[in-house]
Write a structure and sequence with these properties.
17 strands; 46% strand; five-stranded antiparallel beta sheet; six-stranded antiparallel beta sheet; 300 residues
Length: 300
C-alpha cells in the first residue's frame, strides 16, 4: 500500500512539472542568412529560413541592410504574418537600417521568410528565431532600444515576467573585415551572428535569447566589437508565455444523508392497542361476573 502511494505521488508531481514547463516560452529553431554585392544595384530582398516547429509558433525576424544613400527603408516582410516591432537607423548613420518583426505561423515546417528594402541594398543580413508557448493575444511584454557609436553597444533593461524569453538584438555598420556567421539553438537559450562584408564595409546582426524564470528587471546587455568604431542599434524585448489556465477548485461533495431506522419499541413496558383492548374486555367481564355474584347472593 505504501509503495502504491509513493508511485501515485511521483506521478502527480511529474504531471504538474511537465504541465508548467510546457507553459514557458521555449525556442524551437531558427535560421540566418546574409548577402554582399560588389556594387550597385545589389539586392532588395534577402531570404532566411524560419526553422521547423509547431503550428501556432511565434517567429521573431530581424534584418539589417546598408546602401550608399540615406533613402533606404524596409518594406513589410513575407509572408504577411508579421507585425513591426522596431525600425530605425544604426546610430546616426541613415545608410544602415535595422528592422525587427514578430508574428505567428500555422505552418509547422520550416518556411521561407523574406526581408525587403525600398532601395538597392549592397549588404544584407537576416536572422530568425522560432518560439513555442507564446501568448497569442499579447505576445510582447516590452521592447526598448538604444543607439550610438563606438565599439561597445548596450541593450537597455526592461521589466519582464516569469516564464518569458528575453531577446537582445544588435545591428551595426562599420568599415571592418571581421566575419563570424553561426547560430546555436537550444530550448531555453539561443544566439546567432549574421554578418556580411563588401568593399571594407560590414553590416552585422547579432542576437541572443534567454529564458527568464522570474519576473523583474532584465538588466542591460553589452556587445563588444573589434575594429573601427561602429554605428549601432541595440534592442531588448521580452516574449510573454501563454497564460496558465486558472486552477479549478475541487468539486463540492454533498454527503448523502444516512437514513437511520426508527428506535425499537419496548413491547414489554408499553402495551399496544390490541393489548389495551384485551385488558378492557377482561375488566368488563370481571365486573359483570362480580355483579351477577352479588345479585344471586342477595336472593339466596
Amino acid at each position: 500500500m505504501r509503495l502504491l502511494r509513493l508511485f501515485l505521488t511521483i506521478a502527480i508531481i511529474s504531471f504538474f512539472n511537465s504541465y508548467y514547463s510546457q507553459a514557458d516560452v521555449l525556442i524551437e529553431s531558427g535560421g540566418i542568412n546574409s548577402f554582399a554585392a560588389a556594387g550597385i544595384p545589389g539586392v532588395m530582398q534577402l531570404d532566411v529560413q524560419s526553422g521547423a516547429g509547431q503550428a501556432g509558433d511565434y517567429i521573431l525576424l530581424t534584418c539589417g541592410a546598408f546602401e550608399n544613400s540615406q533613402n533606404n527603408l524596409f518594406n513589410s516582410p513575407d509572408p504577411a504574418i508579421f507585425s513591426g516591432l522596431d525600425f530605425d537607423s544604426c546610430g546616426d548613420n541613415g545608410m544602415c537600417i535595422s528592422g525587427i518583426w514578430g508574428g505567428f505561423t500555422n505552418n509547422p515546417a520550416s518556411e521561407n521568410l523574406a526581408c525587403n528594402t525600398t532601395g538597392a541594398s549592397v549588404i544584407f543580413t537576416a536572422g530568425a528565431l522560432r518560439y513555442s508557448n507564446v501568448d497569442t493575444m499579447n505576445p510582447v511584454i516590452a521592447i526598448d532600444c538604444n543607439f550610438g557609436q563606438g565599439n561597445t553597444a548596450t541593450a537597455p533593461s526592461i521589466m519582464t515576467e516569469a516564464g518569458s524569453q528575453v531577446v537582445r538584438i544588435f545591428t551595426s555598420f562599420a568599415f571592418t573585415e571581421v566575419i563570424a556567421n553561426g547560430i546555436n539553438v537550444m530550448s531555453q537559450v539561443a544566439d546567432f551572428n549574421s554578418e556580411a562584408t563588401v568593399d571594407g564595409g560590414q553590416v552585422s546582426s547579432i542576437a541572443s535569447s534567454m529564458f527568464f524564470n522570474s519576473d523583474g528587471n532584465t538588466g542591460t546587455a553589452v556587445q563588444m566589437y573589434v575594429g573601427s568604431p561602429r554605428d549601432w542599434r541595440a534592442c531588448t524585448l521580452a516574449l510573454r508565455m501563454v497564460p496558465t489556465p486558472p486552477t479549478q477548485p475541487p468539486p463540492t461533495v454533498i454527503p448523502t444523508p444516512t437514513m437511520l431506522p426508527p428506535p425499537p419499541i419496548d413491547r414489554t413496558s408499553v402495551p399496544t392497542l390490541t393489548q389495551w383492548g384485551h385488558l378492557s374486555v377482561a375488566i368488563l367481564i370481571l365486573l359483570i361476573g362480580v355483579w351477577f355474584y352479588r345479585k344471586h347472593k342477595i336472593r339466596g
